[in-house]
Structure formats: C-alpha cells, structure tokens
Design goal:
This protein is α+β, with helices and mostly antiparallel strands and 145 residues long. It has one domain: Glutaredoxin (3-Layer(aba) Sandwich), CATH 3.40.30. The protein has 5 helices and 4 strands; from the N terminus they run H-E-H-E-H-E-E-H-H. The chain has a 4-stranded mixed β-sheet with strand order 2-1-3-4. The longest helix has 19 residues.
Length: 145
Amino acid sequence: MIRRHDPDITCAAAGGPVMLFDGVCNLCSGWVHFAIARDPEARLRFAAVQSPLGQAFLARHGLPLDVYDSFYFVEDGMVYEKSTAWFRMVRHLRWPWPWFRAGAIVPRGLRDVAYDLVARNRYRWFGRREVCLVPTPDIAARFIG
C-alpha cells in the first residue's frame, strides 16, 4: 500500500475520493460504471491513469508510466493500492457493498495475491479497449484529469 500523502489528486477532485484506473481495461472501466451506479451521492471521482492527471500521479510516486497493474484510491489525501484500494472504495457504495469491507481482515499479502492474479489476466479474461473510456455526458462531471 502506498501510504503517501497526495493532495494534488484530492484538490483536483474538490476534496472527494478518487479512483485512478486503467482506462483501456474492460474490467476496470466496467467497475467504474458499476461504482457510479451505486454511488447515489456522487462522492466518488475517477481518472484514467493514462490521463495527464493520472500520468502525473504515477510520476510523483515513482511508478511506471506505461504499466498499469493496479488501481489506486486516493482518500483524504492518502493513496491506497490493489486490494486495499478496493476495500476503501466499496465503503462509499450503497448497501450491501460496504459489507465487503469486512474482507479486509484477510492479511493484505493474501488479498494482493488474488488481486495480482486478476490484474495479470484482466486483458485476456475481460478484453481491452483501443482507447480510454470516454464518459457519457451524464457522468462526465465525475471524471477528472
């Protein structure tokens, strides 16, 4: 887990939590749409790691600019990755999704092994887009970067 403070992302999102995701991954883009549909207060914001904001984020944290093997969740200026990011994010969704947060009691090393397995195979299992997810006008305000 990255435990660095990153105020730039939080400020860009007007203080709300942000999910940075692989914009060409069908699984990741599908999860973004899933989360939007289950976040009725529209608290969550989203940015593709391929966007200028996403690339700047990766560079600030010394992460590869062309390998996207994790998604990141920035909340209250703190950065979380992999399974921890997912568990932090689901608590913002409507019931029953916050209950999945209980899975965080599993040691992070074990959770991240499962996360890494899916991450390594996500393009093969779910496919890949030629271009990043382009939000529709009704959700465009939820995207930053």
